[in-house]
Amino acid sequence: MANSKNFLKLYFIGMLAAVIGFCCPMFKILGASVNGFEFFKNSGFVLVGALLIFAGALAGVLFSLLSIKSLGILKLIALLAMIAGVVVLIVGFTSNGLYKVIAQGFLKSATFGFYILIVGIVLAAVGYATNK
Q1: Which residue has the higher pLDDT, 7 or 109?
Q2: 3-class SS at 111?
């Protein structure tokens, strides 16, 4: 039982890392750093992706703090929303002319917030998968 609690903490830490990574500078475009909230100023796929990532991560943190037993499916939905948000954001990068600069040098323009977000998603997925 104690081992299960550790993995529940891993899910919480992952979701919290995703929220922190979203708030930190994620990309560097033409000398300016862009965090996740800058994507809210856009429309289309970029906005939808940013909303899914942030809402999923925040919901995952909140669901981790609640002690109701039937939250497993809600935690999965929050995790899947974050993953879908990343996919939608990448699609938005490739379809929006302004963000094609990021898409071409995706990892070259990524900063520490992007990596914290990705590590958070992986930790949350491992925490959720090992909880079953």
Answers
A1: 109
A2: coil
